[in-house]
Protein 1
Amino acid sequence: QLQLQESGPGLVKPSETLSLTCTVSGGSISSSSYYWGWIRQPPGKGLEWIGSIYYSGSTYYSPSLKSRVTISVDTSKNQFSLKLSSVTAADTAVYYCAQMGVGATNFDYWGQGTLVTVSS
Amino acid sequence: QTVVTQEPSFSVSPGGTVTLTCGLSSGSVSTGYYPSWYQQTPGQAPRTLIYSTNTRSSGVPDRFSGSILGNKAALTITGAQADDESDYYCVLYMGSGTVVFGGGTKLTVL
């Protein structure tokens, strides 16, 4: 059974860079079939797609976040990572990583999520 | 920017049938948008229910079904149960590797 686990600081200061890692177990991140994505959910609000990456490093980003987001992959560690720069309180959210289906059209397996709070 | 629309809330009686929809602020939803559906209860990660319009994810009971109804994607729950009370989100594939979530529907079973 595929499992995903987010990790990283739970508190980030305004204007700094949020960094999270998703560790994949029970399967290979280098599988040619799947993309890997990041999604977030501000407290009490809906889900928002942040971006996706293929094991080769090819990325897609949400247009609204593109200028601040970088997603990377480390196949040797079976991990992929998210960096979001110049954060504000509006970036406070639960951040989820997920495996995406073929063609990156949907999400299959989800991590449990991690809350990141932006505050000084 | 295209907005994906969902009913903010819906209610259904236990044992009843409910259809939630997923539309576009401009245009019609077709299978080419690969609509997918997710269930989320408070404090939990989303659970994948349906992908590619009408394919159930592994372990999802056949009470949940997906379709295209008119110009929208639809999620139908038949024989609603108390633990179906959740938030439901749709996702549409917009092409060029991008997806968009709908705003979600809060379903009450009462």
Protein 2
Amino acid sequence: DVQLVESGGGSVQPGGSLRLSCVASGFTFNTYWMHWVRQAPGKGLVWVSRIHRDGSTTDYADSVKGRFTISRDNAKNTLFLQMNSLTADDTAVYYCARGGLSGSTNSNWFDSWGQGTLLTVSS
Amino acid sequence: DIVMTQSPDSLTVSLGERATINCKSSQTVLYSSNNRNYLSWYQQKPGQPPKMLIYWASTRYSGVPDRFSGSGSGTDFTLTISSLQAEDVAVYYCQQYYNTPPTFGQGTKVEI
């Protein structure tokens, strides 16, 4: 079974930084696009970032561009999200999600999700 | 960015009755080269992560009960729950994966 387990969330002050991790198992990690999707308390789902299977391509939502960096370590089946210059608007549950197979046209669907990790940005 | 708009925002349905959720995209999500609609539906129960229900607008994901069905093409789509069960209480989201950034509808809350 596909498993995605996020960690690294917590409480941070505005302007601070945090790194999220997502450990994957149950599938061949290095063949899939991987994504981060967030959900502010009581709100809907918002895509944050994605990364190609080999890390060669990354994309970001405008709201996080220049502040967040997505990366992956295929040897450790782990996805990361480095978040800098955090603001209250970044407060959310952050989900790691599996996209489509690299080379497919469905790279941007989300067929498996982790349980999420909560980031709270507050002074 | 493609804007996804769902209607209604919420609906109350009796057990065993049909629930219908609509989703409209601001531009087509039908890819002409393969005639596929790049549209998926997700279910999110309280306190849980979302789960994929439908992809390619009408294909049920593995393990999804057949009371869930998706239809539509181009810019207008529908998720139908043919006979609502208690465990179907959730928020439902449509999402386009036609291009980047992928975008979600605002969600529709289904209650009994």
Protein 3
Amino acid sequence: ETGVTQSPTHLIKTRGQQVTLRCSSQSGHNTVSWYQQALGQGPQFIFQYYREEENGRGNFPPRFSGLQFPNYSSELNVNALELDDSALYLCASSLPGRTSTDTQYFGPGTRLTVL
Amino acid sequence: AQRVTQPEKLLSVFKGAPVELKCNYSYSGSPELFWYVQYSRQRLQLLLRHISRESIKGFTADLNKGETSFHLKKPFAQEEDSAMYYCALRSGSARQLTFGSGTQLTVLP
């Protein structure tokens, strides 16, 4: 069983650019959630994808968008990057449900720096 | 809106001493609460959830609805417990997690 993987590990962009971050979910998991973790803070929920549809969204502007593919991998896209977008972006996969099977398993994260 | 507060950013204890990491929450519904841990150079991982009422690595946490708290406790801390600990509340249609800002625990020899 493979765990959640994310790419790239690190990324440096300039203000105004666009970025795409990628996540491969744990084997068998069909739900992917994205979180933003600013320095010194806990992760903050961006959105979730279930069966290729957005299934919930946190308090993030529309320039944060995502996709989920038939193999359940996912992308996070951020347009018009701002300095405050500098953060660790975490992906978590899970199975939907209300039992122990819906534990969210986290990836190692992508560190985005916006200059 | 839901909120999770961890009042201590840093906590140091000596090996063998008891440790308590505080977590308070604000939520209008019936809460589902979790503790996540991140060891050095490792990814965030689930430590325990209140619904399981289990002890993991000697840690326990009791949900106190009256005080809206979910403190994490261990009677005898070990050096390998040194890590960042996050309290989280699950809610919403996506059952997303709302995290506190974390407590860095250091267990001194």
Protein 4
Amino acid sequence: QVQLVQSGAEVKKPGASVKVSCKASGYMFTEHYLYWVRQAPGQGLEWMGWINPKSGDTHTAQKFLGRVTMTRDTSISTAYMEVNRLTYDDTAVYYCTKGHFGCDYWGQGTLVTVSS
Amino acid sequence: DIQMTQSPSSLSASVGDRVTITCRASQGIRNDLNWLQQKPGRAPKRLIYRASNLQSGVPSRFSGSGSGTGFTLTISGLQPEDFATYYCLQYNSYPWTFGQGTRVEMK
């Protein structure tokens, strides 16, 4: 069965960086885009961008350009998303989700807390 | 960017009720729409894709309809496990955008 397993919760200081991983299993990793979505506490869902695991091509939402980097390691079927220059507004649960007519499977989420 | 306007933002209902949630897109998105269910502390779960196709394993009391700019999610016979927040997601063009969410609460 398809599974996306994300890395554990992180606490970071303002200005620091965080890298979240998303390990895929149960399907061919290179055949589906992976998307990243975040959700601030008590808020709705916010789309951040995608990575094509086959080519490594990425597309980042305008809001995150220059601050978010998406990469992958096909040898271990894992995608990564790094957010730089963290601010308090980046406190959120970050999800990876597999693309197929939208988003079909979701990771369990990674809570990133930005706190001094 | 395509704006997704979802309504209502919340509703109160009883077990057995028929519930309808709507999403309106600011421009036509064909049928490139998901409906997602999210329970507190959990990741979203897809219920519907291509506006009206039921995700495998999802109960048939959930149904979706619409095309272009207007979409509806219907729950026919609300069950206790259906109390949750529901979101629409358009994947017609980047950036993908979500509705604001509809919280379905117990009356």
